[in-house]
Design a protein that fits this description.
Helix content is about 35%, strand content about 15%. The protein has a six-stranded parallel beta sheet, with helices on both faces. Strands 9-10-11 form a three-stranded antiparallel beta sheet, with helices on one face. It has a two-stranded antiparallel ribbon with strand order 3-4. About 35% of the residues are buried. A hairpin with a 2-residue loop joins strand 9 and strand 10. With about 425 residues, it is of the alpha/beta class.
């Protein structure tokens, strides 16, 4: 055996922003798990509480499923894997009084609790915010629902798709109503869920800063519909300033021209001219410097008013040459533009690869699980990929031991079906 001073030095793990923060995660599907995965990526210890037997609904939302090392499908859906890394899983029957007692014990040692039960459901189990905060006054409780804890819709179940419709997003997404293919269209990913998860993480961090300064926890009331209304951003401001509801514009922009897709001779490209200087550069490349001098087109406000006259002329010019010719010239002149990639092309893009936007992690069912990486780039406290998305109840014994259960008590809880 070598002496200690002969052993290679261990590589210390970099510090993490949320190291030491314990999050009790009673959420499922997407908005809540997206929030807690963000916290976990930043170093929080996230304990994911799931139903014995089935677990998070998204475990079965497939195909596709994770394949094992022999190429066979496992029971782990890709949907679930995308929102649950860096967590530990314990399966607890919340309807069982003994299970409720376990959750209260976990909550007493937690900094944050995230849940997305229907309004009032946790009170039936004695696990509502008021009860838990009476035992742990510094606890931050974040409740995520479709419509919030107040208002006439508070008892409705909330789903991203329905909220995209109710909250106005589908009225501004998709092709114009007067063109082929026009009509309501949802966004291709569950943006109301994802935005709510991110807003929830921001609110939790703010509440933790207050708690650290004062010792006082608080409740956070997050709603998908609220978030959907907020994320309308400039379109919501357009309506409030004018009283006129904007409609669908397809790939065009409500407030900027030219800012949309155009067809080149061999495919589509994006042109995103954001100011008048960029428009003048574009006009030079397009061989139409006169457009930049035309009082109908010289300023963005004029281009917006005369888009139906200008856009067809731009389309005719851009269709005369291949898209790579255009993109090369536009990029050299700093005229904002871009290709339109599918996901295979996006992940193969050299910029995406250089930014390390995929990560490979060992998983109990396969040697290498590839996941989309976190976009958070912190210079001192970087994101760390510590745990693959857990199997259902993978850490049940470990976590019960941490709250003081001995081996015999754990065996009894497993035998009685309180935990799984």
């Amino acid at each position: 055996m070598p002496n200690d001073d002969q052993l290679p030095p261990s590589t210390p793990l970099p510090p993490m922003s949320l190291a030491g923060v314990r999050v009790l995660d009673l959420s499922r599907v997407l908005a809540g798990p997206w929030c807690t995965q963000t916290l976990a990526d930043l170093g929080a210890d996230v304990v994911k509480v799931e139903r014995p037997g089935n677990g998070d609904d998204t475990r079965s939302w497939g195909p596709p499923y994770l394949k094992d090392d022999q190429g066979a499908d496992t029971a782990e859906a890709a949907y679930y894997l995308g929102a649950n890394r860096n967590k530990r899983s314990i399966a607890i029957d919340i309807a069982n009084p003994a299970g409720q007692d376990l959750i209260r014990r976990f909550a007493r040692g937690a900094d944050v609790l995230v849940e997305n039960f229907k309004v009032g459901d946790l009170a039936r189990y004695g696990l509502d915010a008021a009860t838990l905060m009476a035992e742990n006054p510094g606890l931050v409780v974040c409740s995520i629902t479709g419509f919030g804890q107040t208002g006439p819709y508070r008892e409705r179940a909330g789903y991203d798709y329905a909220v995209q419709g109710l909250g106005g997003l589908m009225s501004v997404t998709g092709e114009r109503d007067d063109l082929p293919g026009g009509g309501p269209q949802k966004v291709g990913v569950a943006v109301a869920d994802l935005f709510t998860g991110l807003y929830s993480a921001v609110a939790i961090l703010a509440a933790l800063r207050h708690r650290d300064a004062t010792g006082q926890g608080q409740r956070i009331d997050m709603a998908l519909l609220d978030t959907q209304i907020a994320m309308l951003a400039n379109l919501g401001a357009n309506y409030l300033c004018t009283g006129r509801a904007p409609g669908r514009m397809g790939n065009a922009h409500q407030n900027i021209v030219p800012y949309q897709t155009f067809e080149a001779s061999d495919g589509y490209l994006i042109l995103a001219v954001g100011n008048d200087g960029q428009f003048a550069k574009f006009c030079e490349i397009a061989g139409r410097p006169d457009w930049a001098q035309d009082p109908r087109f010289a300023r963005n406000a004029d281009r917006v008013r005369h888009r139906d006259l200008l856009v067809p002329q731009i389309a005719a010019v851009l269709k005369t040459r291949p898209r790579q010719d255009w993109l090369g010239q536009f990029e050299a002149a700093h005229v904002p533009c871009g290709a339109i990639n599918d996901l295979a092309e996006a992940f193969a893009d050299p910029q995406v690869q250089s930014r390390d936007m995929t990560v490979a992690m060992p998983h109990p069912l396969t040697e290498q699980l590839r996941l989309v990486a976190s976009p958070l780039k912190l210079s001192v406290t970087p994101v760390a990929y510590r745990r693959a998305p857990p199997l259902l109840g993978e850490h049940t014994r470990e976590l019960l031991a941490e709250i003081g259960c001995d081996a015999q008590q754990i065996d009894t809880l497993l035998h009685e079906g309180v935990v799984g």
